[in-house]
Write a structure and sequence with these properties.
- This protein has 368 residues and is mostly beta strands.
- It has one domain (2-367): Porin, CATH 2.40.160.10.
- Helix content is 6%, strand content 52%.
- The chain is built from two helices and 17 strands.
- A 16-stranded antiparallel β-barrel has the order 1-2-3-5-6-7-8-9-10-11-12-13-14-15-16-17.
- A hairpin with an 8-residue loop joins β14 and β15 (322-332).
């Protein structure tokens, strides 16, 4: 029972809204339209600021999309951002009924622009539920240098999250946390990206946590993420990663898509397949499969109810490692800077003592 609860808390702790892939349905097929980072998430550019009021929020007023509702003005050489997130969780089954409330994230993000160069970094503290290691300590989740070589070609180096698969806003998904792309998974990466009118490609060399010497748990890897824009409102892609750490070696292949149709509907899907070998048992392979499918409807500007199904099997030779869930959620951005999201799911975990559970959460997010 404690394993179920701890696992769910860790997953919920990893929720970070790094980008709204739903904007593909509005014709924004690449994240660079709104964000400084080529892969999306984090600091908004001026156009992304304007869209947060005009496109993404139910209501707004003049300058409400600017930092702190217009109290701070961005300049050409300086962009200001940051996030505060708090969550209320819920878990119930035949043996336990429990809820927790805690702050998930608290930081300020600054971006300094020098012609074709950007210096971007966050300043904040480690947050999480009671018992989180180093809680309250200083934390810079990401900091990097970005070189806009041309309008289409970018080079980025520093600490940030690896771009693999669909840049979904919810990192609790079966295609994120179990594959190492969840909370505190930022590492030091050299990333090359190229964009055209019809596609985009990212090639990344992950150096691991070079700031933590002799850390055998963090892997180094080479990865590729390619996406094709199939229409003005849809894209499909594939990702590949080969990684190695002191404890294992793995190959990871994924396919994904974001499809907007009938003007207000959006379908998101990702399927990943992983082969891994433990360092102590190099001849014994473990195969993993994970998938997520969500279907949403923009009921009105800023309000998106959705249905989501997830599946994870940690070892394809062992059916007891299967986990699945299905549920309903709703995401609402009433005004710029405020996001509210809630989700309720039925969970099935064959490896747990109690296989059936109900879980839910309510998220409050304020971005500067």
């Amino acid at each position: 029972m404690h394993r179920i609860l701890i696992g769910i808390i860790l997953l919920l702790f990893s929720i970070q809204t790094y980008g709204f892939s739903e904007n593909v349905s509005h014709g924004y097929v690449n994240c660079m339209a709104c964000h400084v980072a080529p892969s999306g998430g984090g600091l908004l550019n001026d156009y992304g600021r304007s869209l947060s009021g005009e496109l993404m929020s139910t209501w707004g007023w003049k300058n409400s999309d600017q930092p702190l509702f217009g109290a701070v003005q961005n300049a050409e050489w300086l962009k200001v951002g940051g996030d505060y997130r708090a969550i209320q969780t819920y878990l119930e089954n035949s043996q336990v009924k429990q809820g927790k409330q805690f702050t998930m994230q608290k930081n300020v993000e600054l971006g300094f622009n020098f012609s074709k160069l950007w210096l971007v970094g966050t300043l904040g503290t480690q947050e999480g539920p009671t018992g989180t290691p180093n809680k309250g300590d200083f934390l810079s989740e990401r900091h990097y240098i970005l070189w806009d070589i041309t309008d289409e070609i970018k080079l980025r180096a520093g600490k940030f999250r690896l771009n693999f698969g669909l840049n979904d806003a919810n990192h609790t998904r079966a295609t994120k946390q179990p594959l190492g792309f969840g909370s505190n998974s930022e590492t030091y990466i050299l990333e090359f990206s190229k964009f055209t009118e019809t596609d985009e490609i990212f090639i990344s060399a992950d150096l691991g946590r070079i700031d933590i010497p002799r850390n055998s748990a963090k892997e180094t890897s080479i990865s590729l993420n390619y996406a094709k824009y199939t229409s003005e409102k849809s894209k499909v892609g594939t990702s590949f990663l080969f990684g190695e750490s002191g404890s294992r070696r793995r190959s990871l292949l994924g396919i994904y898509g974001v499809i907007g149709f009938l003007e207000h509907f959006i379908l998101k899907n990702e399927v990943d397949y992983q082969q891994s070998f433990a360092a102590a048992l190099p001849n014994e392979r473990k195969d993993l499969v994970s998938s997520v499918l969500s279907f949403g409807y923009q009921a009105t500007k800023g309000l998106v109810p959705y249905f989501v199904v997830e599946h994870l099997q940690q070892d394809l030779t062992d059916e007891s490692t299967q986990q699945s869930s299905a549920g309903l959620g709703i995401q609402w951005l009433p005004i710029p800077h405020i996001e509210l999201q809630a989700e309720f799911k039925k969970l099935t975990n064959k490896s747990a003592q109690v296989s059936q559970s109900d879980s839910g959460w309510i998220l409050f997010h304020f971005y500067l």
